[in-house]
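Handout, section 4.2: multi-component inputs.
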Amino acid sequence: MTEIEKWKILQSQFIVDNRWCRVRKDCVQLPDGEVVDDYFIHVRPDIALVLPITGDRNIVFVRQYRHGVGQILLELPAGSFDPQRENSVEAAKRELEEETGYYAEHLHKLATLYDNPVKDTNAIHLFLAEGVIYSGKRKFDITEDIEIVLIPLEEVAERIKNREICVAGTLSALFLGLNYLNTSQLQSTPYPSHKGRE
Amino acid sequence: MTEIEKWKILQSQFIVDNRWCRVRKDCVQLPDGEVVDDYFIHVRPDIALVLPITGDRNIVFVRQYRHGVGQILLELPAGSFDPQRENSVEAAKRELEEETGYYAEHLHKLATLYDNPVKDTNAIHLFLAEGVIYSGKRKFDITEDIEIVLIPLEEVAERIKNREICVAGTLSALFLGLNYLNTSQLQSTPYPSHKGRE
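Output:
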């Protein structure tokens, strides 16, 4: 079996470079020596995503219009951040409160994933937040119009089965988070508030 | 609660439009009347992804270099296709055999997901393929250099926990596929990775 090798970047330039869209065109040399002079990469900010669970066992979802696919979708709260300027935990707490008005005291990191590692540079940081509390401090960006949807923990499997939840990052966070809760010490006890967790 | 509405596209033009990269710049009107004249969308082909399981209960993974994030990653076999020209089932079978040399007679559709519905147009079609057979008919694109990695079904949960599997689409397919098998006729056979899940 061939040892997999990384590619060499021979040259790199931005062909689109503005606040909302950055496209890089790389000239790369493959391990077999072949040169590809137009490999396009989308340079994107990282994403912080939270699976927020209230003290009374509801998951806080958001429903909003997504222009890429032209549909209104049910997702977990998430937002982009620049890892050079903000850490993922702070970004996750901030995005959660801005989008939903729910505050998380403690976050448990579930995973760092990639959505599209072939074409995009960004990672997506997934967190579980137990015992989130409503602060009401929502703050939207100009393009945001967000409905909060509370779904009981026990109903989520059914919602996934019915294909109401169809974004890979949200689905991954749900599975990882529910698995984590399932295998943690909380499994057999009634769901505690966030205080009981730390 | 405000009813969530779709945006109106007032104008749309491609600012990058070649075989490997298509970026659209939309001028959109938001539900509150506000006009945003530079909303960028990445127009991408759909992806077909397969969770292939051999007769002896191994999952067929691929390990390859991913230039977007500059890393060598473990993923399920997948590839892009144009839904106008090929259906997702045929694309999934083709990509599976080209990348791994494994042939699937029957595919079970697990879900149609989105990786990034905010910025990207494409869907990702997830399939389960049980009892895949090695045909050896691999066929790589110029940029592909792929190692096949067989992982026993029973070890996958551990690999996920160890964060060896970190791509959202792959993770979603594994969870959906293993859940499906868990609730299907295989439930009563040994299947330790998701014992006690439901």
